[in-house]
Write a structure and sequence with these properties.
single chain
Length: 236
């Protein structure tokens, strides 16, 4: 269907619609784990954005390409794509999208075991969404700050940011966000050696993921709970 749509849009020279078709195809391929095909689709989307002088869309393509390379574990290519995206969004004064790019770069540094650099980008990203009072994005930013502080064994700051994330997630009514916060809180407590508290939060996360039908996330929470129980000697 995407192919048929692209053929039609090419006839009427609608680069914007061609861009969205290729972007949609890229997302489908990425979610299916076909990363090389995803990059090709996003590069086609990028070509349409550039041909149509669609600046925001061009920046979005670079961000999407960065996401795929991150999934592949290719730090240099992912960083290059994210940086191009950030530069474009900054030039366009699109602060929220620039904040998303900074957040992605922070996550990339976390992947690369560099929590200090991650915190730098998370803080820049956080300031923007705080100024915009974007509570949904604040949940994610607080969670990421907590993860970086956990990696640094700064548990006081990690707990503070994660508690703030949980409060906003509860306020939002978004069970997926809340379950994700509970799961991360469980991992944090395990890092502190508070295994009983960790188990309780992993159980809460698993129950919420079960409610919304998020099977993969539920399974992950249950596995984390089992590992913690085994560490505590509750199961053999």
């Amino acid at each position: 269907k995407y192919g048929e749509a692209i053929t039609y849009y090419r006839k009427i020279k609608d680069e914007g619609s061609i861009f969205w078709c290729y972007s949609g195809m890229g997302i489908v391929q990425k979610n299916a784990g076909n990363f090389d095909d995803a990059v090709k689709c996003f590069e086609q989307a990028l070509a349409s954005a550039q041909k149509g002088a669609l600046k925001n869309e061009e920046a979005s393509c670079y961000n999407n390409i960065g996401n795929v390379y991150r999934r592949q574990g290719d730090f240099p290519k992912s960083m290059d794509a994210y940086q191009k995206s950030l530069n474009h969004f900054t030039t366009l004064k699109n602060e929220i999208s620039a904040s998303d790019c900074m957040n992605n770069i922070g996550n990339l540094y976390l992947d690369n075991n560099d929590p200090f650099r991650a915190l730098d980008y998370f803080n820049q990203s956080l300031r923007i969404v705080q100024n915009k009072n974007d509570e949904y994005r604040l949940i994610v930013r607080y969670k990421n700050m907590a993860e970086a502080y956990t990696d640094l064994k700064d548990f006081d700051n990690a707990i503070q940011f994660l508690e703030d994330a949980i409060k906003l997630a509860e306020k939002s009514g978004n069970k997926s966000y809340l379950a994700s916060c509970y799961s991360q809180f469980g991992k944090l407590q395990a890092e502190k050696g508070e295994y009983t508290i960790s188990i309780a939060y992993h159980q809460k996360a698993a129950l919420l993921f079960s409610e919304i039908g998020a099977k993969a996330e539920e399974a992950e929470a249950l596995i984390e709970m089992a590992h913690t129980e085994q560490h505590e000697g509750l199961i053999k």
